[in-house]
Amino acid sequence: MHPPPSAAAMDFSQNSLFGYMEDLQELTIIERPVRRSLKTPEEIERLTVDEDLSDIERAVYLLSAGQDVQGTSVIANLPFLMRQNPTETLRRVLPKVREALHVAGVEMQLTAAVSFLTILQDESVSIHSYTHSFLQVILLHLEHRDTGVSNAWLETLLSVIEVLPKETLRHEILNPLVSKAQLSQTVQSRLVSCKILGKLTNKFDAHTIKREILPLVKSLCQDVEYEVRSCMCRQLENIAQGIGTELTKSVVLPELIELSRDEGSSVRLAAFETLVNLLDIFDTDDRSQTILPLVKSFCEKSFKADESILISLSFHLGKLCHGLYGIFTPDQHLRFLEFYKKLCTLGLQQENGHNENQIPPQILEQEKKYISVRKNCAYNFPAMIVFVDPKNFHMELYSTFFCLCHDPEVPVRYTIAICFYEVSKLLNSGVYLIHKELITLLQDESLEVLDALIDHLPEILELMSTGGESSVQENKLSSLPDLIPALTAAEQRAAASLKWRTHEKLLQKYACLPHVISSDQIYYRFLQRMFTIMMTNNVLPVQKAASRTLCIFLRYNRKQEQRHEVIQKLIEQLGQGKSYWNRLRFLDTCEFIIEIFSKSFFCKYFFLPAIELTHDPVANVRMKLCYLLPKVKSTLKIPADKHLLQQLEMCVRKLLCQEKDKDVLAIVKRTVLELDRMEMSMDAFQKKFYEKDLLDQEKEREELLLLEMEQLEKEKQQNDGRPMSDKVFEKKRRDTKTPTQSLPKNIPISVPGPSSVTPSTSKEIKKSKLIRSQSFNNQAFHAKYGNLEKCASKSSTAGYTPVSGLGKTSVLSLTDDSFRTRNASSVPPSFSPNTPLPSTSRGTGNSVDPKSSGSKDTQPRKATLKSRKSNP
């Protein structure tokens, strides 16, 4: 027996009973449609089809005796039947489709229109067969009483017109169109005729158009229904392109002028938009004597008319000013500019202090239209800069630009953010005028605005740093002190939101910062933030973006002590981190290091910590490392790195012998085959690896140059702060280059690639980028790194020199040893063939790992790893 329910469970109060009854009633209501939807045996019998029937027989049966839903399914499957058996489909199925369409509902009609168009696009049958079998069905249903169905068949017909021969078009479409366009026909028939005429003009010669088509066009332009006149007016652009300039001026232009004075506002709007789109066809006289007065009249009357006309006018204003540029008098130029400024602030003068719920619907609709007008003005702002000349921007348009950037509505700010890069390019040396607006948009409360701005953020910042009144490198962006706080605030705002794609994009764009701001600014304001994101963020694409950007920051960092600290953090907090998730991110970082840095840099600092993860206790980490091993092997050069190759082979051999996870073992076996097929790069240049080797040598040279520039900066500070001259810089850069004569004579010096520039040009570009990334801080950064010294003592017993072993090395010795090109004759003793794996333990990380719990929980090290903690 079950125990009696508690008093709380047996609540028979009146409110409780009513609640139970309501629940029961809801259940019965939910259950009723289910019972009604059940099919009776008779219905099931009627819907059942013999499984032995072929596709064609089943289609014929369902179209003859099936229900509407079954017939619709057959028509939707018609393109497949045409591809499978076109002859039988045309002979047996299509006649049944014609019969079904006579009494078909809207859904079947729409499905048929789409299927007929798909058959045309698939080219399942010849054009002749398609015309014979399908064209009459399409023409028959053009005037369906349902507008949606009629438009669907019309779209299919317009696509068919593109491929039909002239004779077929003349007999099957153009000749019947003469009667269909008469006033005695329905409005729907005349609207269809307008759109067909617009399509036909590109298929016939000018004589045929003038004799047979233009009379119909004139008749429809003077139709009694404003809908027909408006529709025909919008087709005049296509007709003008088909008949040429002379006929356009003599036939189309007079019709447009008359339609621009029409009593219907939609007709006048269509005439205006068509005139704007045809501006390029007309000569200067037509523009100044005919079109300009019409445009002036249209603009003057626009504020008194419907707001929809203002929306169209504001959208086309940029194209209009560009097309009429050069024929404006100074007074007309000023009036058009003032008209644009007025549109940019339309609706902002009204009081908005009242509650939105109390605003009448008409006022709300009007405000939405005003927002669309201002949005269109923002879209046309670059064209208006050209209209007034960028030199006059500050006097004429800066206040308008300020208003658009501070507009209360997000769509307006979003649009001006999209245009910000174009504005910056047009202003060129005057780009400093919009520094404050850049900060404003970076600090915008809407992430949509930020997302639009950062699409071209690197280019904008590059223009800001090189343009303006002060383009001296020492003072780059010095006139914009709020830039770095704005950038950091923008990143934090994106990180706090759920829009991780915006956050990812922003981190990717931050890779441009080494070319814009100083190395110290990046180190103190951005680099640690990248570490934090890699360690704490839960979105993998964001973590990878932060990892790649951090590698670029490291690539252009100008101080060895800072570089060594970053490398140590990467190895200790990621590669030797407690969380397997961090170790996975370390392998991602290694992949970026291989891509961005030279081979020697990776081998010196990251090769051994990476292959050490072959002993990781987590299968996912070992699996990811296996995928990375081919790229790791590609960084080795023989014979200088023979000892590292032995270490790699030993680790792979251990994986093959000791791996217990079947998935990892399968990947290891595939990786071994791929590693065996790889050809090793040699220290000397080889023809097949020439491009890669030369690019790698360039990376090494630039890494060495960064070190020597740091030494020069310190010498400069010691010599009363005298700046390093370009001559000294170029001399040092030349000294680090390998002489051209040392390269093989039978190989050209220029490297074919995506940038077809000469080596000297490439060197100048890299020189300018390196100079831009130079730090000119007066005080050098001197910090003590206890961990570096501690790891140095460990490396002396381990037999190799990791990054931490360079903690107390002088600047000059580091310059000589850290990034020097390796030779086959001199193998560093730190990389001797008998070198064991580094004796570092992941348990020595000095930071609390936020990923050490939850689904990415830390697994304790196994005995194979703990046994390697013997070195102090």
UniProtKB/TrEMBL annotation:
The keyword Thylakoid does not apply. Residues 863-872 have a biased composition (Basic residues). One of its GO terms (biological process) is blastocyst hatching. Residues 714-737 have a biased composition (Basic and acidic residues). Residues 747-762 have a biased composition (Low complexity). Serine/threonine-protein phosphatase 4 (PP4) occurs in different assemblies of the catalytic and one or more regulatory subunits. Component of the PP4 complex PPP4C-PPP4R4. This is Serine/threonine-protein phosphatase 4 regulatory subunit 4. The lineage of its organism: Eukaryota, Metazoa, Chordata, Craniata, Vertebrata. The gene is PPP4R4.
